[in-house]
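Dear Dr. V.,

Thank you for agreeing to look over these. As mentioned in my earlier message, I'm a first-year student in the group and I'm still getting used to reading structure tokens, so any feedback on how I've presented them would be very welcome. I ran two proteins. I've put each sequence directly above its structure. The first is here:
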Amino acid sequence: MSELVTGDAVVLGLRPARLPSRALALAIDLVVVWIVFILVSIGLTIATVTLDEAASAAIAVATFLLVLVGGPIAVETLSHGRSLGKLACGLRVVRDDGGPIRFRHALVRGAMGVVEILMTLGVFACIASLVSARGRRLGDVFAGTLVVRERVSAGRGIAVPPPPPWLVGRFAQLDLSAVPDELWLAIRQYLTRMQQLDAEVGLSMAERLAGELAVRTGVPVPPGVPAAAYLAGVVNERQARDARRVFAAAQAGSLGQGGVGVGSAPAVGVVGPAGAVSSVALGAAVAPVPPAVPAAPVEPGFSEAEEPGVRKPGTGFAPPA
């Protein structure tokens, strides 16, 4: 694990991606990019068949730069470091401090990728990744980025500390749809590592994150609530909503497979004559049961005979039905 320290003195435990996973992700990206490049080139060749040789060459160069160079840069910028290959392999490009990359990071990585990947068939990138302690290629070194493993086993995760009991359910009316994933990640990292921070640094980080979260939700932080407790309460509310959503989906799936519907009435047992029990739905009309006629008294030690007037000794044994 690589321990990166942010500017706010937060230690991040990131797992750098190694050469095999990065090579697989790069191969997927190259296959997709080359397929797009070939299709676009064929379409432009058919559309510009009447142009002269110089114009065709200029269009070919522009297509190469836009598709093979500009395409990966745009994808990494818009997806914050998740290309199609990296998404399939569970990887992501982040800054050295663990934050999401920007356009300038993707631009430097893409420009260096032309030299160390396209022109040298990836030889320079493989050598640099093997030599680097964190598996970085030259583009990562110049851009100040790092490719990390985004999917880790659930057993290695650190649980977020629960909020104070008096804050549970207090933020049920907050609109959390506008909160980005990057802010949730920063809040989670702070809550899981706030005991390792200096008191002043932790307080300033909590206030800054709480302010950003209040701006995204449109509701200010309640007065008298500490910033760290506010963050823990909102995160707890988000986890509760996710749990309810998953439970509702599972319940809907079970109902769709033949379960009892919501509007159906449950059945109850009704005792009928001679001790018979029948199942009747709630709300259904039940026929009145006639009162039972009391039986004639039976002398002790005898049982009723099958024929009137005949008595047999009672043994207390009930024959099987």
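The second protein is here, in the same arrangement:
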Amino acid sequence: MSTRPSPPSADAAAVAARGAEPDISIDLPGRDPVKARIYGERARGATVPLVLHFHGGTFVCGGLDNGRNVARLLAGAGAVVVSLDYPKAPKAPFPEPIEVGYAALEWLYKQRAKLGGKGADLFLAGEEAGGNVAAAVAMIARDRGHPPLAGQILLSPMLDPCAGTASLRQATGDAVQCRWASGWREFLNRPVNATHPYAVPGGSLRLAEVARTLVLVGKDDPMRDEGLAFAQRLQNAGIPVTCSVLPGASNWPAALYEPEGSGCAECEAVVQKHFREFFSAAPPPH
């Protein structure tokens, strides 16, 4: 975590324009302030994609530093990114991380002209547990009719605690403890939460009208199969989906958190290309 002083959120546009990576504090109605970090820069008078990003960490760990690599890739694709330090289980189980994420999305929508420029497209993005939060917040935005989203980007998303997929079995082998299963238990808190579509987007029975989606997974990714299955279900529900298995992206999602990057310059270039194409293809939000 950076030790730089946190500028007030009202100055977010100014610090983003300088191209730094400042930490800020976001005041949310009826909630404690939440920390965030801004990535990317916008030329004066320009309009760029604006992304609310959720880091990974199996719901129970991780922070702003863990989201640095993905946030920088998003910013390198031309976006201004606000990476959120959302609350984590077990102190804050479902639905708190999701509701904080949605409140932050509403805050970002109000700040969109300052941060992204007039008419900036608004996106959600997240990896691993953060991909779950992003997918859930996209559903809430659909159900509450606001704010309009141009798309969601899900990298190796944790979407279903009951998936039991081949990719997850291959990753865990004969291990007695599975960190993903442990994270799910802490996040869901109560068995009944496992049936809620915001907690488990992969099990949602209604996917129509959510934002267009980009799903990226690694070839040996534990979440590969559930990510691909979710992409197919979105397509079946009529959602425009781009989905790709990245052949060079080994050791995902763990590699996404490495201090010096993922260790795969080629696959990072491919990921950034996917981001650019997804941003450029975004239709005007309704």
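From my reading of the second output: Residues 1-18, 173-177 have pLDDT under 50 and may be disordered. The CA atoms of residues 129 and 232 lie 20 Å apart. Does that match how you would interpret it?

Kind regards,
E.
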